[in-house]
Amino acid sequence: MRRNMCGERQMRSSFFVLVLAALVSADAFATDYPAAQSPAIPGGTGYVEIPGAKVPLDPAHSYKVIIDGLSAAAQPTELLPALGRASLIVNALAVAHVPSSNRKVVVIFHGVSVDGLLKNEGYHAKFGVDNPNLKAISELRESSCSYVDSTWPTTNWESQRWRRTSNSPRPRASC
Length: 175
Hints:
By secondary structure, this protein is an alpha/beta fold. It has helices at 2-28, 81-95, 120-127, 134-142, 152-155, 157-165; strands at residues 63-69, 103-109, 146-149, 173-174. The relative contact order is 0.13.
């Protein structure tokens, strides 16, 4: 019994020494990256360009991205995660000097994330705060990002009637 306890203590102290060494070496090799840049979407998530990246963004390449906007923000005062991802992508492409003609970003909203698309009055009535997503939505709209509210045809009566009488594709809004 005593042998196991001593071996266990020795293992714990060895583990502690390894963790401490890892922390010290990680701090010694830490790189100071430049500040995050948000040239296209200042109200969204910024992008940090990493010098010497193995796969840099190519301004001549056409980038097509679809973002699944399913989850709501953790707090009503925070930006929707899908808008954060969309703004990060658009900012990254802007930092890399990719022209807007080569950026195709679409966000598909469904589920609880749709509440983030409410006008300020409706958002305030539901959550008691102003909608923090409106600035990012406006900036994304200006950068020619698109979005689709996939619940729109099923959430109001007029949409149901439109759906039954029309053969046209689903309505889309620009973001």
